[in-house]
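Next comes one such specimen:
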Amino acid sequence: MNDDNTPDNSEGADDARPQRHIRSYVLRQGRMSPGQIRNIEEGMPRWGIEYAPQAIDYAATFGRRAPVVLEIGFGMGFTTAEIATARPDTDFIGIEVHGPGVGNMFKLIAEQQLANIRVIQHDAVEVLRDMIPDGSLAGVHVYFPDPWPKKRHLKRRLIQAPLVAQLAAKLAPGGYLHCATDIEDYGQQMLDVLSAEPLLENTVDGFAPRPDYRPLTKFEARGLRLGHGVWDVIFRRKG
């Protein structure tokens, strides 16, 4: 990965070197509070998974065998914690690069005594490539990723064909990929890209109603009151 986030297509490049990808995020950590720093220092050894180029042993990580759902970009962690509370028989791995969100997620895990959440603070593309075994996930959640609304930035959007193909390969047969956005054209892009992936099939005709397991966030509720839309796209890995 390079600093300007552009792929290396130079002639004569070493084919053995891992390809660099365009990041879908900008890492602006800002100042972290002492509490956030403490939450990470205390939480990472207990509920964190350090990035390493080797497959995660889910049973060893959670101390049991259960369906595993991966969430990419959990923000401050409130939605993840609520879903994990409502689904105690499912284990959740959340990926987030921003320190304040990671710290808050650890705080929620501790306060709510959530045994079914683990956290990885690293680039999701590399985690998928190096740590998630093919055919191992019961589901993937991608909720309200950065919309990158400017035309020149559209290539930075997370939901693109290469990533969707990678996500589809990580799902077990029958596993689901659930994306949500409050940006209509991004919702259409999600629908188009997932529809074009041969390993996936739509669970409905077009956009899906919000399922009960995805809670309505305060931000989302405010937007709906103002007449803004939210678009959910839910596809399933073909058997």
Notes: The longest helix spans residues 34-47.
